[in-house]
Specification:
The protein is about 45% helix and about 10% strand. It is an alpha/beta fold. α7 packs across α10 and α7 packs across α11. The chain binds Fe4 H S5 and zinc ion (2 copies).
């Protein structure tokens, strides 16, 4: 917080954003944040008010902020919560579900809640252990977790007829992903990293309306709106590459405010000009075809990785 004045009304500013050379009071910040979201929705052709949206909510600050903004903008957005069965001292998964449910109930919004253990007989850490996703004796459930979340989000969106799947990735997330993709020159992933990923071959359109917000901006929104959320991070995030990249990039941002946005916006501009195009099917690892068990698109021979992991 700062003693600067709001650029719009001369009240005391609640937040100063060096990267935008902007300081705003609470009221004008909340207004600005909603306007900026609406701008991103239009700029990247994400969706219209005629399309049904499914928001992936984790109970954390970003996803609840996204659902709140879409609700205030009167978009028809329902929520999807996936209980992964991740335990910790604070019972991470059950607690985060409670925040998601309370948020929905307070606003009269529809929340679809899924429990992975109830549906597939195992929690994510149990499945990761059984399929030997470990490193130096410790379970590393993140790859399994990512796969299950992608599978379930797509399944629910398709089964229930949602045109859009919205996730709350912010600029810090996107920049960390971009940095990782560039470090490994994963050109196929660079081709697909985008604020709007068109629907294709059994996949719902995926959008990231918060992709231009710094993490501290989404945090400030949630705080100033007084939205209760789970503050605890998933215990498995500790030591992840993503967090390591975020720390590195934050150090650069401190020295040179605006670096994150410039890095990401420059990437999107390069893509607009034709960089990192998606390869035609024939040049990929394998052609996409529906999994014979669950019907979702896969490039694996036989059943998809999700069905294989759960022995379905
Ligand atoms: S929830 Fe799942 Fe994350 Fe936890 S197990 Fe890893 S991927 S860290 S976003
Ligand atoms: Zn103001
Ligand atoms: Zn399958």
């Amino acid at each position: 917080m700062t003693s600067m004045k709001c650029h719009k009304c001369a009240e005391r500013a609640s937040i100063r954003m060096r990267q935008h050379r902007l300081a705003l009071c609470k009221e004008h910040y909340l207004e600005w944040f909603v306007e900026q979201t609406e701008r991103a929705i239009h700029k990247y052709d994400m969706f219209t008010r005629q399309e049904r949206i499914l928001v992936a909510v984790s109970g954390g600050k970003d996803s609840l902020a996204l659902w709140d903004v879409l609700w205030r903008l009167e978009y028809p957005a329902d929520g999807l919560y996936i209980n992964l069965g991740i335990d910790s001292e604070e019972a991470y998964s059950d607690e985060s579900e409670r925040y998601a449910r309370e948020f929905a109930a307070e606003r009269g919004l529809k929340l679809h809640a899924i429990n992975v253990q109830e549906m597939y007989g195992e929690t994510i850490p149990q499945m990761a252990r059984r399929t030997r996703r470990t490193s130096s004796g410790r379970v590393k459930p993140c790859s399994a977790c990512g796969m299950v979340k992608r599978h379930e989000m797509n399944r629910v969106a398709r089964d229930l007829g949602y045109a859009i799947l919205a996730t709350a990735h912010n600029l810090d997330d996107e920049v960390a992903i971009l940095f990782g993709n560039v470090m490994m020159w994963q050109t196929d992933l660079l081709a697909r990293q985008s604020p709007t990923l068109a629907a294709a071959e059994g996949f719902t359109r995926k959008v990231k309306p918060f992709c231009r917000f710094y993490e501290r901006e989404t945090a400030a929104y949630t705080l100033l709106r007084g939205i209760p959320y789970i503050e605890e991070e998933c215990p498995h995030a500790v030591g992840s590459k993503q967090l390591y990249y975020k720390d590195l990039i934050n150090k650069i941002e401190e020295e040179q405010p605006g670096t994150k946005l410039a890095f990401y916006a420059g990437f999107l501009k390069a893509k607009e000009k034709g960089a990192f195009r998606e390869l035609p099917d024939a040049a990929r690892d394998g052609e996409l075809h529906p999994c014979p068990n669950c019907g979702q698109p896969t490039t694996s021979a036989g059943v998809c990785a999700f069905c294989r992991s759960f022995n379905l």
